[in-house]
Amino acid sequence: MVEEPERELDGGPAAELAMARAWLWDWLAGIFSYPFSLEDFRSRVTAKVPAVTEAAAALAGWGYTLEGLAEAARAAAAIGGEEELADLEMEFVRLFDTPSAGNRLHPTESVQRQGHVDLVLAGELDRLYRRWGLQPAPDAGEMADHASLESAFLSYLAVEEARLRAAGQSAAAVEQAQAGLLSDHLLHWMPGWWRAVAETARHPLLAAAARIGPGLLAGDARLFGLRQPV
């Protein structure tokens, strides 16, 4: 049995754990962001495969089970030209822009939890991002409760935790922010959404990436002492 991580450690293993988590959440954010260009896809996804693979190996030592990672890495490497990128773009449209039964594939928290776009919930998340000095890029074109933005924000918070721990400073506030984001948002909707994507996606990258998410989220829930996703 893998021992439970000791969150009270300053720097060292705790900082490395936070940074490994940050790499995985950042990668998922990149994969589930629309690939506007080959250069954009390579910078957000393909170029990060070596670091993500190393981070995943570290997380395995902390009890994380990340199914689908090797398949996702291979699928990302296979997108080497405009034709392969076009296949991915068309799959994004088919999955996320085309109405589905119960809107179960829509990549936003409010639609998954309430069945419709909720500007109040999106505004709550937007204010949360801004409190940490962040805001979605003006040309992002996504609601604040989009899967890619929530994942990217959790990655940012994990980086901040790693930075503070490596400097020997208290990471209590950023840990609390991560626990709140997980318990108030991600744990309520991402497990079901990922299952729907994994079952429906025809493109190997999206299907495999959707299998990574549940294990990463379950590991984080355990790490922060939160209820396990169902």
UniProtKB/TrEMBL annotation:
Q: Does the keyword Glycosyltransferase apply?
A: no
Q: Write down the Gene3D superfamilies for this protein, in alphabetical order.
A: TorD-like
Q: Which UniProt keywords apply?
A: Chaperone
Q: Which SUPFAM superfamilies match?
A: TorD-like
Under the heading Pfam families, the entry gives:
Nitrate_red_del (PF02613)
Record-annotated membrane-spanning stretches: none
What's this protein's name? Uncharacterized protein
Lineage of the organism: Bacteria, Bacillati, Bacillota, Clostridia, Eubacteriales
